[in-house]
Amino acid sequence: MAPSLTTIIVAGGRGLRMGKEIPKQFLSLGNRPVLMHTIDRFLSYDPDMSVVLVLPEDQFDYWKELCRHYRFQASYQLVAGGASRFQSVKNGLNAVGDCDLVAIHDGVRPFVSFGTIERCCNVAMKKGAAIPVIEVVETLRKIDHEKNEIKPREEYRLVQTPQVFQTSIIQKAYEEAEQISFTDDAAVAEAAGYEITLVEGNRENIKITSPFDLLIANALVKHEDDL
Amino acid sequence: MAPSLTTIIVAGGRGLRMGKEIPKQFLSLGNRPVLMHTIDRFLSYDPDMSVVLVLPEDQFDYWKELCRHYRFQASYQLVAGGASRFQSVKNGLNAVGDCDLVAIHDGVRPFVSFGTIERCCNVAMKKGAAIPVIEVVETLRKIDHEKNEIKPREEYRLVQTPQVFQTSIIQKAYEEAEQISFTDDAAVAEAAGYEITLVEGNRENIKITSPFDLLIANALVKHEDDL
């Protein structure tokens, strides 16, 4: 039997980095908001999974209005975000019911492939915690005060989401106190003593945080439409 | 007086990574081959600069045919590439005449901004060697055998081109023997004892090496046309 999965989609964007009024998760991509693409991507992968959407509470009304407008009828549980990403994920975890695995995913990464989700789930079932990564394709340099030096890029990876964990592991990890060094969920699990396994992500799985990203995203949506 | 500049554009691509017959530099972008965009970008920045185009010798005929077909009449010097990138750049350097600065640029980076070129030239005039870099926007991990750990991404940069040098510096650096660790020209200069200064690149300045890159590139060209 396939493991039961709950996906927590975290959409905390206030949109400041886009230079626009509208939070990133609501930006229009193709024919509807980014966040609807992301939710649908997971439910298309597995229509039986539970989805928890974590959104700032003051965006609930706007989101519901968008859902009416776009006739978006996906099934998910809406949970209020917290003061930080850590707090938001924690709120999401509190809403997770009985399941084998929890996937935690950025709301502004609508192009995660089914292969990436599947690889993360398979490895997390065996190893406890799995995150998708891609190779560094440019030359990499490290800055050290006034100096800088080349680092071997083949030893580095860029991290994406979903970050997938056995439910008990990630719930236990999030009982620890928040640290500012927690840039993602893998960092939280690691701080609690768990080991993270890296699996292959997909290059299109970009995080939409700049106008340049949105340009790429629209090209990707158009490309998918053309296929 | 503005410093005199020669740009060496290195187009050694055999196209293997694209899964297509046609070398990357000849792929169609908008209405013409990538390489024509790249050459024009530099000549638009400074119509008085000298351009040296380094191309595998067995692609000369095909390139000339493309130039006739697209009525591409830019002024540049055509030089045969060598067995490696190092050898190709060395051949290009041998063709460089009297000038203050040499910029070395990937033929498949047509979206370098004028700002990036200018910043590299200004800093290279003062400091000897300047290369454009951008920040790492994803979480970064380093692999160490079976383990992996988060690295502080704010201490790392991704390297682009053009890499700009005072002419005497880069010519002297390329007199040294080739090493396999030379992934770019900055590495060659560094091995010869010169210090590299990092300047701000531009995010659109992607290296077109995969179908995904070509998709982005076509979106960027269309975006420029729309402006």
Give the topology.
2 copies of one chain form a homodimer.
Chain A: E1 5-10, E2 28-29, E3 32-33, H1 34-45, E4 50-55, H2 60-69, E5 77-80, H3 85-94, E6 101-106, H4 114-127, E7 129-135, E8 139-144, E9 147-151, E10 156-159, E11 163-166, H5 167-173, H6 185-191, E12 197-200, H7 211-226
Parallel strand pairs in A: 1-4, 1-6, 4-5, 7-12
Antiparallel strand pairs in A: 2-3, 6-11, 7-10, 7-11, 8-9
Provide an overview of this structure.
Helix content of chain A is 33%, strand content 25%. By secondary structure, the first copy, chain A, is α/β, with parallel strands linked by helices. In chain A, strands 1, 4, 5, 6, 7, 10, 11 and 12 form an eight-stranded mixed beta sheet that branches. In chain A, helix 5 packs across helix 6. Chain A starts with a strand and ends with a helix. The mean pLDDT of chain A is 94. Chains A and B meet through strand 8, strand 9, strand 10, helix 6 and helix 7 of A and strand 8, strand 9, strand 10, helix 6 and helix 7 of B.
Total beta strand runs of chain A: 12
Coarse shape of chain A: globular
Strand count, sense and closure of the main sheet of chain A?
Answer: 8 strands, mixed
Mean pLDDT of chain A: 94
Spell the H/E element sequence of chain A.
EEEHEHEHEHEEEEEHHEH
Structure, briefly:
The structure is a homodimer of 227-residue chains. By secondary structure, the first copy, chain A, is α/β, with parallel strands linked by helices.
